[in-house]
């Protein structure tokens, strides 16, 4: 109980959605279920803290919702890394190959993005890894390292049970992927098999990680006090530096090195009902129509894959209830997936009292008949959805900051929502400040290409002579 109170820190004085004169009373009333109260945030923090402890525990891990997987990444960059390193970055609808050169006062990086066709995303695992190996070979040809034997860091941003630095079993697919024959198998071995099938390139996979670990390592390369890596993009996940002695599932000598990065996979939080106190009808509909119903509920309330659709569902509901657009919607509005998350950022980028972006978005959706009142209401709905996402993330980050008790630390952050939403950073800073223990200082640092550059840096650290 005492630890929970400590983890909650300074929770008093949380704000609710700011007053906006032009928002209609019925809309404000109906959006109340999208606003998290102080009491609800406090309770969510207790539940997240409890689930993190369960994930770390040997006897409770199996039933834990927040899995807290051991990454076996125990060293952070120290500036002595040298050489040429490859990275593969698979974590969404695009896939990247990178090559970095590290010298004493020299950092050079080249990269290329490759698309992953929908047919491959839901095809066989063999197809997926053959595609990755082909991209890798083409990239190595283009950059004149085709005949080199290079160390490679592999960012694989899906829930993994990591059994070592170069071995990890896929727990479950997320973010629209459903390749057969991969769940329960070692993804490094699947990559090695695909490379071997080609027989034309030589790479040594020296590290397997996900994008949160890459983000943490990437930021630690620049700021040595970075202790948390957060992604708020297509998906949402976080990793942090834990004391090795607290990692009960650590397979090896826990006394050899004091720290170990833990990949929480907190996107799964709530699948046991822990989020029922905040789940809305829109969240339920998103979940029911997803390819992984009942899973990744926390992620579905936060990430860019779902944020636009959450707003669309609220707009549809309020239009049908004649609270928006005079009750007249459009075929575009009523079709699933048509309100992109980038629309939320664009609408919230309008200056106060101006609805230029909002009108443009509504025009694209066949809602040119929207009044100024409608625009104000639409903006408010966007704000409620994005603010809720920022506050949910902040509650989780505050739990980890309070758990680590470092006097000062940096949180490395990457992902399209954090990067492109005009207010997400500020919302997080404000909320985290209110939720952490007194006297702790923190910074949120935008990670420049954590999942790619971070993977190469993890490979560099793995090859370093300590």
From TrEMBL:
- Which species does the entry assign this protein to? Frankliniella occidentalis
**Lineage: superkingdom:** Eukaryota
Entry annotated with the keyword Zinc: no
Main EC class the enzyme belongs to: transferase
Pfam families, alphabetized? Hexokinase_1, Hexokinase_2
| Residue span(s) of domain Hexokinase N-terminal | 27-221
Provide one Gene Ontology cellular component.
Answer: mitochondrion
Gene3D superfamilies referenced in this protein's UniProt entry, alphabetically: 3.30.420.40, 3.40.367.20
Question: EC?
Answer: 2.7.1.-
Protein name as annotated:
Phosphotransferase
Catalyzed reactions: D-fructose + ATP = D-fructose 6-phosphate + ADP + H(+); D-mannose + ATP = D-mannose 6-phosphate + ADP + H(+); D-glucose + ATP = D-glucose 6-phosphate + ADP + H(+); a D-hexose + ATP = a D-hexose 6-phosphate + ADP + H(+)
By sequence similarity, the record places it as follows:
Belongs to the hexokinase family.
* Gene of this entry: LOC113214981
SUPFAM superfamilies, alphabetically?
Actin-like ATPase domain
Listed InterPro entries: ATPase_NBD (IPR043129), Hexokinase (IPR001312), Hexokinase_BS (IPR019807), Hexokinase_C (IPR022673), Hexokinase_N (IPR022672)
